[in-house]
Amino acid sequence: MVLECPPKTAPVSKLVIRWYTDFERMGKNMARKNYTVEQIIVILRKVEVLCGQGMTVKEAVKQEGITENTYFRWRKEYGGMSTAEVKRLKELEKENSRLKKIVAELSLDNEMLKDVASKNF
Questions:
Q1: What total number of domains does the chain contain?
Q2: Are 70 and 84 in contact (CB under 8 A)?
Q3: Residue 121 lies in domain
Q4: pTM
Q5: Residue 103 lies in a domain
Q6: Does any domain span residue 34?
């Protein structure tokens, strides 16, 4: 929506008020994408190659369609890993989470049994 109102003092210029939607304010290229681990590894390698060819990190990540912050976050998490290693890491994290839940449930059961046993005697 664009409103145009000529000011009273200067007939040549126009006052333009524009109402931005949230999508326009964020920027059309800022839509969030979910990348797989394999895609992340490939993008990291491409950026490294481009930087090796003399491009700056800013230019390389822009060419790949990600932000600098995303690149550095991914590099911190996945830098130097192969796709097989990253898959194994994700599997281990998932298994660790599952085991932590089991330990928490067993600890709760143990506390309840101790409480019941102490009250009966």
A1: 1
A2: no
A3: 94-121
A4: 0.53
A5: yes
A6: no
